[in-house]
Amino acid sequence: MARGGKSGGGGLLQWLGLALIVLLVDQFTKVLVVGYYHPGEGTYVTSFFNLVRVHNSGAAFSFLAGASGWQRWFFTVLGIVAGAVIVWMLKTHPGQRLFSFAMACILGGALGNVIDRLLYGYVVDFLDFHWLGMHFPAFNIADSAITVGAVCLVLDELLRVRRTH
Length: 165
Description:
Elements: H1 12-36, E1 42-46, E2 49-56, H2 70-92, H3 97-120, E3 123-131, E4 134-135, H4 141-164
Helix pairs in contact: 1-3, 2-3, 3-4
């Protein structure tokens, strides 16, 4: 998978370091939530945001949460395989800053959720946003990093296509 763009700046260790920071922040916040809240408990913060402890045994938006338990191992293996592929991609494209930033965010987030699945059997979510009666599913720092990474991947691709035309 060849990627166009500048090759300057940043090495593999820089991007693995960023992924580690994402992972540590994610796990630290989850330890706090698990330590201070029981499942379903929360704290009102603002008119549009609460902290709440939610267990997600599925994937994004609780996809497959109602399955019989196989999804825990499926998503764990998927996260580990994705992590290995991302490390390989970071190794082969460390100088492509936006692409590597995106991959590092996704790596840190994916591994944060893998650790939850291994430790608890589910992912700990706690960021609860709501507005005008609409409620967004609770999520966590790992999910946020994965989302930021995905947006950056799309932006990187758009910029790459624009440079080639």
